[in-house]
Each structure stands twice: as structure tokens, then as C-alpha cells.
Design goal:
The protein is an alpha/beta fold and about 280 residues long. The protein has one domain: Rossmann fold, CATH 3.40.50. Helix content is about 40%, strand content about 15%. It has a 7-stranded parallel sheet, sandwiched between helices. α4 packs parallel to α5 and α5 runs parallel beside α6.
């Protein structure tokens, strides 16, 4: 049976949340739902001013109900992360508003189909890479410049266990996340001398808008208990559990951690996938 004991008391814990991000400005892409929304909720509860970025305008507006700081400490930007000119304008707006950006969480992403290598469509690959990889590249470029000037900062990219091994996503999605992990490492090398850390989280099966169809189908068939059964903790995860790890990597508690891709997958990547798992 699926249980979430580690986060069963999250709301009570939130009341006594430490203020590790007091006086920090955090920009989160893909902030309207899922892991991105959980990150905004978590870091704002810990004192951060937030810049929320997403393409889904109405969902992004609704996500503001989770923000625990005042309206003057929250900025909303509706844009396509694949459009560099829009990214540059949003970053400039945030810098004009707050004067700096201390933490960047590149979370925006989209899934791909499960087509095989002989069926894949170039247009799908281009769009998936434009959002999942180039979106992070664009924000890292423009926010990174401000961080270099400041001489400090933390960047956390949301990759996936699909970027580590086959079986957790479609071909284009998996390849884009593998590329994002590599970009995390190369940009960590670029920024290290400037006091800027770059890391990634690699979530396993998490219930979000992207995976909702999988969860709904399992529930319709009475097979919810099988979701996450292949990982060592024998359950799927929640966005809040990934947000907690992102909060760690973005905080001074991880001051000597950079260039790492940390699985948050219930132990799935600790063991070999079963044959045919991709199917």
C-alpha cells in the first residue's frame, strides 16, 4: 500500500519552517504545477521572494495561493522558456524588481511520446529539446550573468532518472534529460570559479500533471498499488519530496556540492531495471 510517512506532517512542519532563504530571490520555471509549484511553496515558506515562470497563465496565477510571502515579494512571468528573447526580458524584469537573483530552479519540462527509434518525429524531438534543455540553457545564461557579477548563486536543474537509464520515459524526453545532466556538469565547471553552484535532481515516478494520465489509468484499473513498485521503497513519490531536495541543493547547507545529479527516486536507480521495462 502506498504511504507517504515522511511527508504526512508537511503542513505541520511548514508552520515551523526554518527561514534558510530569508532575503533570497528565487526564480522557478515550470512553477504553475507539480514539482515547480512545490518548490515555490517550499522556498517561499522558508522566506524567499519568488519569481514564478510558466507558459500556463491561469495555472500560474492559481499557484500563487501557495505563496506564503507578501505580494510585493512575488513576481509572475508568463512565457515560453524556449524563447530566449522572452527569457531575457523576464530576467531583466526580475533584476529590476529585486536587484538580484540568488537561486535559479530550471524545472520547466514536457514529456514525449513512447514512439520507437524508427517512429520518432523530428518536430517532437525539436520541441522537447527546446523546452527541456534549451529552456534551462537560456535561463542559466541570463541569470548566470547576474550571478557572476554578484559572485554567488545556486542553480538547480530538474532532470530525471530517464536521463540516467532507459525505461523511465520516451526517447526524446530521456535524451533531453541526459543532455540536461551533462549541461549541469559543464556549467558547474564554467561557474565554479565565480562562487556559483550548479546541480540537478533526477526524480523517479512522481505524481504531477505530466504523469497524471498514468496515475489515472492505474486507478481506473485498480492497480495504484503497483505504481512505483519497481523501486526499493515500493511506492511513488510526491512533488514535495523532490522540492525538499531542491531546497537542500539551493541552500547554504550544500555549499560544497556542485556538478552533481542526485536521484530522488525511491532507490530505483540503485538497482538494474528489469528487461522490457521500457515497454
Amino acid at each position: 500500500m502506498t504511504t507517504f510517512a515522511p511527508y504526512a506532517t508537511f503542513e505541520r512542519y511548514r508552520e515551523d519552517m526554518p527561514v534558510k532563504f530569508s532575503d533570497k530571490v528565487v526564480l522557478v520555471t515550470g512553477a504553475a504545477s507539480g514539482i515547480g509549484r512545490a518548490v515555490v511553496t517550499r522556498l517561499s515558506a522558508e522566506g524567499a521572494a519568488t519569481v514564478r515562470v510558466d507558459l500556463a497563465a491561469e495555472a500560474l496565477k492559481a499557484a500563487g495561493s501557495d505563496v506564503s510571502v507578501g505580494a510585493d515579494s512575488d513576481l509572475v512571468c508568463t512565457l515560453d522558456v524556449a524563447d530566449e528573447s522572452s527569457v531575457a526580458r523576464a530576467v531583466e524584469t526580475a533584476l529590476q524588481r529585486f536587484g538580484r537573483i540568488d537561486v535559479l530552479c530550471n524545472n520547466a519540462g514536457i514529456a514525449s511520446s513512447r514512439k520507437t527509434a524508427t517512429e520518432d518525429e523530428p518536430a517532437e524531438w525539436q520541441r522537447v529539446f527546446a523546452v527541456n534543455l534549451l529552456g534551462a540553457v537560456h535561463f542559466t545564461k541570463h541569470v548566470g550573468r547576474a550571478m557572476v557579477t554578484a559572485g554567488r548563486g545556486a542553480i538547480v536543474n530538474t532532470a530525471s532518472v530517464a536521463g540516467v537509464r532507459a525505461g523511465a520515459g520516451g526517447n526524446a524526453y530521456s535524451a533531453s534529460k541526459a543532455a540536461l545532466i551533462n549541461f549541469t556538469q559543464t556549467s558547474a565547471c564554467d561557474f565554479g570559479a565565480h562562487g556559483i553552484r550548479v546541480n540537478a535532481v533526477c526524480p523517479g515516478l512522481i505524481e504531477t500533471g505530466m504523469t497524471q494520465s498514468t496515475f489515472e489509468l492505474a486507478r481506473e484499473r485498480g492497480k495504484e498499488d503497483r505504481l512505483g513498485s519497481r523501486c526499493e521503497l515500493r511506492r511513488y513519490g510526491r512533488p514535495e519530496e523532490v522540492a525538499a531536495v531542491i531546497a537542500f541543493l539551493a541552500s547554504d547547507d550544500a555549499s560544497y556540492v556542485t556538478g552533481q545529479a542526485l536521484p530522488v527516486d525511491g532507490g530505483n536507480s540503485a538497482s538494474l531495471n528489469l528487461p522490457g521495462m521500457k515497454v
